[in-house]
Write a structure and sequence with these properties.
Blueprint: H1 2-16, E1 23-28, E2 31-33, E3 40-48, E4 53-56, E5 61-64, E6 71-73, E7 76-80, E8 87-91, E9 102-105, E10 113-115, E11 117-120, E12 126-129, E13 134-136, E14 139-141, E15 148-151, E16 156-158, E17 161-163, E18 174-177, E19 182-184, E20 187-189, E21 196-199, E22 205-207, E23 210-212, E24 219-222, E25 228-230, E26 233-235, E27 242-245, E28 254-257, E29 260-262, E30 269-272, E31 275-279, E32 282-284, E33 295-298, E34 301-305, E35 308-310, E36 315-320, E37 326-328, E38 331-333, E39 337-340, E40 355-357, E41 362-365, H2 400-403, E42 414-418, E43 426-431, E44 439-443, E45 449-454, E46 462-465, E47 478-483, E48 490-494
Parallel strand pairs: 1-3, 2-4, 3-5, 3-6, 4-7, 5-8, 6-9, 7-10, 8-11, 9-12, 10-13, 11-14, 12-15, 13-16, 14-17, 15-18, 16-19, 17-20, 18-21, 19-22, 20-23, 21-24, 22-25, 23-26, 24-27, 25-28, 26-29, 27-30, 28-31, 29-32, 30-33, 31-34, 32-35, 33-36, 34-37, 35-38, 36-39
Antiparallel strand pairs: 40-41, 42-43, 43-46, 44-45, 44-47, 47-48
Length: about 500
């Protein structure tokens, strides 16, 4: 009793010093946490019980006054901020080192939704246990164990940022065990251990994510029946870009396709005791000091088509005690040794792929690249523009959008975009123009103009494009083209 009275006294003093309206809460909650009453100070364990709903309005700050306070949801939690007005979950004072996490417990929580929420300094940000919810546009920062953890849950996790989480082994940014998740368009970076750890999945789609600068592997697929790992970037991780272990054997192979995998300190892809399909990846400059490979396999059944595997520190492809793969139409070039334990296919190439700017990690193909139309000729592998497959993760678009505009080599104007590929937005800059170019135009893959930016005395020739059309509608992920006068057309790849 004395301890509780002291705690309430501390809360009262804190509230008195705060100019805003403030609510302090513990125990079961339902109804609405309104912006007009925020911040909400949680001073004891809190819950949303089965059959009840708690809605948190945009702009609400949730502060946890005390270490290891738990927030359990067995009912429905709707916490949906907006792009400009987020909801936050943080410790109240630096002296409170961490709270627990939002714990969605059981299928009664399935209608819950988190959007535009910021989680920081918890043991985790969010934990799911047999709960399938929707999470989008959230940030998870500086969590002690993992940013996000799920068990036996089939959820969607879209367009989030998970960063600086964990303090050692097991401290991955995202952990998904069992279930069939959809993890799309996230940035997972600078976490202490793995970027993503996927285990015992019955299925799952992991697409358009960026896993970079993590303490071990970018993606670790462990003992999964199968999984789809497509259109991701795995770069500058301290171990492997993608590590597949004991997966894809009893159901169907793990699908590793259209990924950019570069600059990792160990292997680009490492597969151990697994079944894999390695299709149309770009695997560039992985390994250090003549150690580690572009693709390394041990006792693995593999299908390997249409990949660029170049400039890796040791072997391009290393195969040991593995079945002879179905393989062909790969470009294996400029590795210290291109093949070990496996012979090149008769259809494999060994040529400079002619990237646009590999020093800046721009792996788009130049228009004279020998990778264009050099992949597997089967229509099953055709590029989105309807032409024969190009080798590598990024195809060279040959639609009429490009063909309509004749490039004059005497013109000095150039379009640049950074980052490209991109998620939430990219800066497009026009350099070297003489004032006779009136606008920067963006077209979709069918040649339809979707955005226009007028260059005037008050508008510099720099555009930050957030992937929206003229009317402010969010456009789908895919390939777009940017035009400005007779400057060379710039291809943009939006990942979100």
């Amino acid at each position: 009793m004395i301890r509780k009275l002291l705690l309430l006294s501390v809360i009262t003093l804190c509230l008195a010093s705060h100019s805003d309206a403030t609510e302090y809460v513990s125990g079961p909650q339902s109804g609405v946490w309104s912006y007009s009453e925020e911040p909400y100070i949680v001073y004891g364990d809190i819950s949303v019980n089965a059959g009840t709903t708690l809605t948190i309005e945009p702009g609400v700050r949730v502060w946890f006054m005390g270490d290891l306070i738990n927030f359990e949801i067995q009912g429905t939690l709707i916490a949906e901020g907006t792009e400009t007005i987020h909801i936050s979950f943080t410790p109240y004072l630096p002296t409170y080192t961490s709270w627990q996490y939002l714990y969605f417990n059981g299928f009664f929580a399935n209608n819950s939704s988190l959007r535009w929420c910021d989680f920081s300094q918890g043991i985790r940000g969010v934990t799911l246990d047999q709960a399938s919810i929707s999470i989008a546009h959230c940030t998870f920062t500086d969590c002690q164990w993992q940013g996000f953890y799920s068990n036996n849950s089939s959820f969607t996790f879209d367009s989030c940022t998970v960063q600086y989480c964990g303090s050692g082994a097991g401290s991955s940014g995202i952990v998904a065990k069992n279930g069939s998740p959809h993890i799309r368009g996230n940035i997972v970076t600078y976490n202490a251990d793995r970027g993503m750890y996927l285990k015992w999945l019955s299925n799952g789609e992991v697409t358009y994510n960026e896993c970079t600068y993590n303490g071990t592997d970018g993606f670790f697929i462990d003992s999964c029946n199968t999984a789809v790992i497509k259109y991701n970037t795995a770069a500058f991780n301290l171990n492997n870009g993608i590590y597949i272990d004991n997966s894809g054997l009893g159901y169907s192979p793990v699908d590793i396709s259209y990924n950019l995998i570069y600059g990792n300190c160990y292997n680009g892809i490492r597969a151990w005791y697994s079944g894999i399909m390695i299709i149309n990846n770009t695997i560039h400059m992985n390994g250090t000091a003549n150690m580690y490979d572009g693709l390394t396999m041990y006792e693995t059944n593999a299908t390997i088509y249409n990949n660029i595997i170049d400039s890796n520190a040791n072997y391009g492809i290393y195969a040991l005690a593995s079945s002879a793969p179905a393989m062909g139409y790969n470009n294996v070039w400029a590795n210290t040794v291109d093949y070990f334990g496996i012979a090149a296919s008769l259809t494999d190439l060994s040529e400079d792929p002619l990237y646009e700017d590999p020093a800046s990690f721009n792996f788009n193909l130049q228009d004279i690249s020998p990778m264009i139309d050099a992949g597997n000729p089967s229509t099953a592998y055709y590029d989105p523009d309807g032409t024969r497959n190009d080798i590598g993760a990024l195809y060279y678009n040959q639609t009429s959008v490009k063909d309509r505009w004749i490039i004059n080599p005497e013109r000095l104007a150039l379009l640049r975009a950074y980052p490209n590929p991109f998620n939430s937005g990219t800066f497009i800059e026009l350099t070297g123009f003489t004032g006779d170019i009136a606008s920067i135009e963006i077209f979709d893959i069918l040649g339809r103009k979707v955005y226009n930016y007028e260059i005037t005395a008050g508008n510099p020739a720099v555009l930050r494009w957030n992937g929206m059309d003229f009317k402010g509608n969010t456009l789908p992920a895919g390939i777009y083209f940017c035009r400005a006068g007779e400057a060379p057309v710039l291809k943009l790849q939006m990942l979100k």
